[in-house]
Please model this.
Amino acid sequence: MDPRRGKATGTASKARTAPSKVSAQGVKGPREEPSESPSATGAARPNARKRSAVGASGSRRKSSPPASPETPQVRARGARAKKGPLDAEDAVEGQAVPAAKPPHPRAPSRRRGSARAAGEQRPPPEPTEGPGFGPRVSASGSAPGAWNPRAVLEKLRLRRQEISLAAETVNPVIDHLLRSLKSCDSEFKDVALLRTGSYYEHVKVSVPNEFDVMFKLEVSRIQLEEYRNSGAFYFVKFKRNPKGNPLSPFLEGEILSASKMLCKFRKIIKKEIESIKDVTVEKKKKGSPAVTLLFRKPKEISVDIILALEVNTSWPASTKSGLPIERWLGTKVRNSLRQQPFYLVPKHAKEGNGFQEETWRLSFSHIEKDILKSHGQSKTCCEINGLKCCRKDCLKLMKHLLEQLKIKFEKRKELEKFCSYHVKTAFFHVCTQKSEDSDWQTRDLELCFENCVTYFLQCLKIEHLEHYFIPGLNLFSRDQIDKISKEFLSQEIEYERNNGFPVFHKC
Model:
């Protein structure tokens, strides 16, 4: 079979706009620390379809009696609140890129204490429509303080006892699988663990019950052929190798078959797991690059094991103008990050109503980890003796907001295609535009969080979220996530923002 034609593996769901590629994340490190899983539209329109407010159970809310003059009235879903003016700026896993450029929040006027000279101005915003930042007022039109973000963050803080329990449960199994792969006479004997993911980025929220583990395998002398100008998906070919190639059993013609390689990888893991009590391998999901383990005891935990090819060559041309951190972390840091290897995971590209099973997708989860680890302009930002910022706190709150809405509407389909990677991608863009450490002072947590919410809403509104590493990839294109789903998420986020985020009080 010609691998380029692709095998239809099932009806493909509409692609979501989530940040560009799937980030494979890893687990390992200190024995006490398991790795964890990777696992909008603009303001709701006043005339949005009328409906009763639906809770997690799907039941209608009882309408409240008219509020007295002394009692503030809760805004209905879809109602617009007064906001500061929005300005145009920038905004990525789809293949269709709308004409409108992605939103980028405009940097506010310089505050006192800024490192920039008083008369120096930022470059003008690129896009002509996109989220911007208005006056320093709450996006809902009310003064900050209507809800307590610090109290929410305290609830989200991972408890040491839970971390230790998860580590004692997950790490021995991962170590066993790694030893088995290395010891058996297979094509995967040179695999190694790569530690990535929100746990190691220190932005994991709630409980440590989902983790990602990346098993990386270095490959050399390969040639990449971009799939349909996607920027993210590639066919992998090997150059001539007189000594033979250990991965030759997975060749489909001259193409390294992602489906064959993933199938063999999954088979080995499944065989090893059969002898481990209270651990099973979840049924394969169409188009997913992960082999998912389900731990039943002492508590339910899921671990996605992702096979990744490590490539030590220049990054693909589609990433040339990506990773726009020059004004945030500096040109030297960007150059250093781009000298690191990149990864390819066996993620199938959409092809008609099915999938192209031989494609591999770019992954930069290790770079995302490095960015979040050293996230400030100051080298001592958030260190023990350094000034603290609220960047990571904002990301935690954004992730938690989406998670809670997905739980609340778990019986509906509109939010199925949204994931934390969309939130992380939008957050990186806000950091790019609001690059000064003084833009993220801890005392301004509520304002900074609302700036992130505003940006994400505008991305939903214009249906464009630019992949942070692959600018040509729109994560909110309609072939990724349909317009109705984006409007639904936008409505619900507006409702939460206008009413003090009641969904946070249900966690």
